[in-house]
Amino acid sequence: MVGVAHESNSVLAIDLAGGGVVAACLAGFVLLAVVRSDENSKQIGVLSSAVRKAESDLAAFRGVCDRQRALLSEREGELARSGQLPAQTPIERYFQTLSEMASRYELNVNRQHPLSPRNYAGLLEQRYAYELNGTTENLLKLFRAVEGADFWADIGFLKIECRGGAVDGASTDRTASLTISLFSALPDDGAADGG
Q1: CA–CA separation, 104 and 145 (whole Å)
Q2: Which CATH superfamily is domain 91-185 in?
Q3: Cβ contacts of residue 115 below 8 Å, gap of 6+?
Q4: How far apart are CA 49 and CA 101, in angstroms?
Q5: Sequence ranges of the domains in the chain
């Protein structure tokens, strides 16, 4: 009986040791799961925050994109309206504008008269001889204003001379002879002669 009791105690000790190991493992797993759960919760919180920020950024980018598309559409419309050649040159309005510019820059218009027009493929160039006088600085201001104007005009031929024949450079009074070209679309019945 003592042998059986001893054997029973050995089995019991082994069972207890095995149970202790299993309990320790289970406790470790539970502890690891709890610690991991806290880490996972933190990571899930960080990822959720990042997703919310990304969604907010995406909504902002879509708003900016929509505004840029609207602005692009508006600018394309403006370009289509302003970039087209007029069907007929509004000569009177152009020369009123040129006279206003000359007056603004204290220049005197001596003469203006039409020259022969030139036709190109789809383009009519109506040319005018234009002569004015004033200071060099004011002449240059007018030329810049004409080049930057929103109408279809350009300065072609240009010759600047001192008035009164002064050659020493002391006189700032100059006479400018130039050709102003006014452009419009060539009417369908006009033939392009290459002018």
Answers
A1: 11
A2: Ribosomal protein S6/Translation elongation factor EF1B (3.30.70.60)
A3: 127, 128, 129, 179
A4: 62
A5: 1-84, 91-185
DSSP track, the chain: -HHHHHHHHHHHHHHHHHHHHHHHHHHHHHHHHHHHHHHHHHHHHHHHHHHHHHHHHHHHHHHHHHHHHHHHHHHHHHHHHHSSPPSS--HHHHHHHHHHHHHHTT-EEEEEEE---EEETTEEEEEEEEEEEEEHHHHHHHHHHHHHSSSSEEEEEEEEEEGGG--SS---EEEEEEEEEEEEEPPTTPPP---
Residue count of the chain: 195
pLDDT for res 166:
52
Query: What pLDDT is attached to residue 6?
Result: 55
Over the Cα atoms of the chain, what is R_g?
Answer: 45
For residue 194, the model assigns a pLDDT of 47
Backbone angles phi, psi at 175, to 5 degrees: -115, 130
Percent of the chain with pLDDT over 90: 3
pTM of the model: 0.48
C-alpha to C-alpha distance for 6 and 47, rounded to whole angstroms: 59
Among the residue ranges 6-10, 25-29, 48-52, 71-75, the one predicted with the least confidence is 6-10
Cα gap 186→90, rounded to integer Å: 14
Main-chain dihedrals φ then ψ at residue 141, nearest 5 degrees: -60, -40
